[in-house]
Amino acid sequence: MAGGVLGTFVAGGSAVAASASLESYAPPARRVRLDLNSGWRFHKGDVEGAEGAGFDDNAWSSLSVPHTWNALDGADGGGYYRGVCWYRRRVTVPADLSGKMLFLQFAGVNQVADVWIDGVHVGRHQGGYSRFRFGVTGALEPGRTGVLAVRVTNAHNADIAPLGADYTFQGGIYRNVSLHAVEKLAVRMLDYAGPGVYLRQREVTATSAAVDVRVTLFNNHTTSRSVAVRAVITHANGTVVADRSTAARTLGSGSGTDIVQTLTIANPRRWNGLTDPYLYSAHVEIQDAAADVITDVVTEPLGLRSYSLDAANGFTLNGRRLSLHGVNLHQDRAVTGWAVTDADHEQDFALIKEIGATAVRMAHYQHDQKDYNLADATGVVVWAEIPLVDAITDSAAFTASTQYQLRELIRQNYNHPSIVFWGIGNEQRSDNAPTNTLLAQLAALVRSEDPDRISTYANNLGNDAQVASHADTTAYNKYFGWYGGSFDDVGGWADKLHAASPNRTFALSEFGAGANPDQHALDPSAPSPGGAFHPEEYQALLHEASWKQLAARPFVWGSFVWNMFDFASDGRNEGGRPGINDKGLVTRDRLIRKDAFFWYKANWSPEPTLYITSRRWTSRTEAAAELKVYSSAATVSAVLNGAPLASRSSADHIFKWTGLRLRPGENIVTVTASIGGTTYTDKVTWTLASGAPGEG
């Protein structure tokens, strides 16, 4: 990491290799966090004087955050409110926090937030997806109650990305709010709201790992302090594997510095994706050397890994090729919209793990820390990106705002081992000079902030567009078989690009099709993307063909289905559901895993899969039918209405029985398969209306 420091000190001091002694370490608690999610008052619309401490908000509605005011109108296809709303809350700071530095933290507010305490403006944050903090030591007094007022607007702002995108820009304080108390000699809290401790992995092999631990300090005392820094790396169980301390040095009042220590871990247990997503912990102690007191402790995750891209063989993790196949992910849910809870995040990642994804593109913006933590723990490789979507404003203000959002993304998420790719933008509609100038600046900023990770960009302007030339690698959004062409075109496109540019590394960042699980057809042709009919069966056919082609081309370093979940896009009205982008493999309420979900599970997951497709097509009006099963088994047996059908064997996880005829009334289909020595069964009932054409 570079930039934003007042001085740098490369530590000497003593190094202790503690692994042989099996010393255990438990970090002392030095910080206090107060949850501020409950007890809010809310008003939709702008109100004069609402920032004042004495303002009467008794008539306002009561709620807790996370909250968005667009959870419903942002997903109904009828337009949604983009404007000002207000939040107010009383905050009582415990008296025992007297003498500490206080910081107010918002994990995410869309899109511009102005914050007051007792009528005094403490700060403004622009950008709807990153964490931000304000120092409020002088504004909140321990032992008394203050009034926190927040004016939020999600109105279009030409100075802030995104200017436009195919999703609803939901307004609100839609992530957690908290108050943090730290000592005056501490790791910096205001380094773009980053952790202040940054772990750079210099070299990671099976026998050794070297880690630079960069600590960003600040002395808020009115006098100088003698400060020492200790860095300790532990196993998950607390056993110390590396321990190093600096000699004491003087840090002047009101000043800061960076201290870098290099720690070496012998025979490291590496973070190895889904196979073994092992996490060490890196602890940093700040010590007031003269007083012999630990004043601050910060703990960050440390997953040791190495990675690379190769134009012929794709992605490598820890020296072994890893197929990066996965999904795109939006932060959205039915009923609650962007107000996603920790339990919601956990359910999403349980489904991502179930499908067997090895990678997730967290589109199209910085996600909540919970998502990145879950990715670290699950072992999926992450593409994280900023919300530079569709278009730019050719202005100094827009450029500065976009660069700021990229710095926030990198600083706040620098230590997550799951993150390998920093995305600098998505689907710019113009290949003009201002757009390319900005993308070049962003790519350079990634190299400055984090020279070890890979910058990338999602392009839809053609293989040779200039916008695709700035990042370290490029990916393409291609919807063959949906927005044109055939779903059989994926392989030919990839082959042509690879042949024309054999040294180019590239991925498929988006592909997919819409599907309404209540709509069905036998062997459907391509539906109209903007039409009212999106049969579930077509989505499955498209993904069957797409994955077969991608799996055979290892030079495509990654492929990301658009999308894991249906999500709100209020400008859409298609597939019989206004306000929804229905390309998800799972419905927006997470209640239905569509057929295509199980196609990927059969291909990607080591868990047993046996699944009858078209299972929701329960009411039939035609006797002609097909039975199709996705399974990880080698052979599947089927029974229709008690009569055995011939067993089927398959090498591609698809088992089909064609030319079936249903009888009037209920038709019971049962399939069985042996997987790993265990017998599995799946069963559906299809009902044919009496008098249906061709009834059996």
Helix-strand blueprint:
Layout: E1 8-10, E2 14-16, E3 32-35, E4 40-44, E5 61-63, E6 84-92, E7 101-106, E8 109-110, E9 112-117, E10 120-126, E11 132-135, E12 145-153, E13 172-173, E14 177-182, E15 185-187, E16 197-204, E17 208-219, E18 225-234, E19 240-245, E20 249-251, E21 255-266, E22 271-272, E23 276-277, E24 280-288, E25 293-302, E26 307-310, E27 314-317, E28 320-321, E29 324-329, H1 342-355, E30 359-362, H2 369-378, E31 381-385, H3 396-413, E32 419-426, H4 433-449, E33 454-459, E34 473-477, H5 490-500, E35 506-511, H6 536-551, E36 556-561, E37 567-574, E38 577-581, H7 595-604, E39 610-612, E40 619-620, E41 624-631, E42 635-640, E43 643-649, E44 654-661, E45 665-675, E46 678-688
Parallel strand pairs: 1-21, 29-30, 29-36, 30-31, 31-32, 32-33, 33-34, 34-35, 35-36, 40-46
Antiparallel strand pairs: 2-19, 3-14, 4-5, 4-6, 6-12, 7-11, 7-14, 8-13, 9-10, 9-12, 15-17, 16-17, 17-21, 18-19, 18-20, 18-24, 22-23, 24-25, 26-27, 27-28, 37-38, 39-41, 41-44, 42-43, 42-45, 45-46
Structural class: mainly beta
**Can you list the strand order of the major beta sheet?**
29-30-31-32-33-34-35-36
- How much beta, percentage-wise? 35-45%
Mean pLDDT: 96
Uncertain spans: 1-21
* Helix proportion range: 10-25%
What is the CA-atom radius of gyration, in angstroms?
A: 27 Å
Care to count the β-strands?
A: 46
Largest sheet: 8 strands, parallel, barrel
Q: Report how far apart the termini are.
A: 70 Å
* Count of separate DSSP helical elements: 7
Tell me, briefly, the overall form.
globular
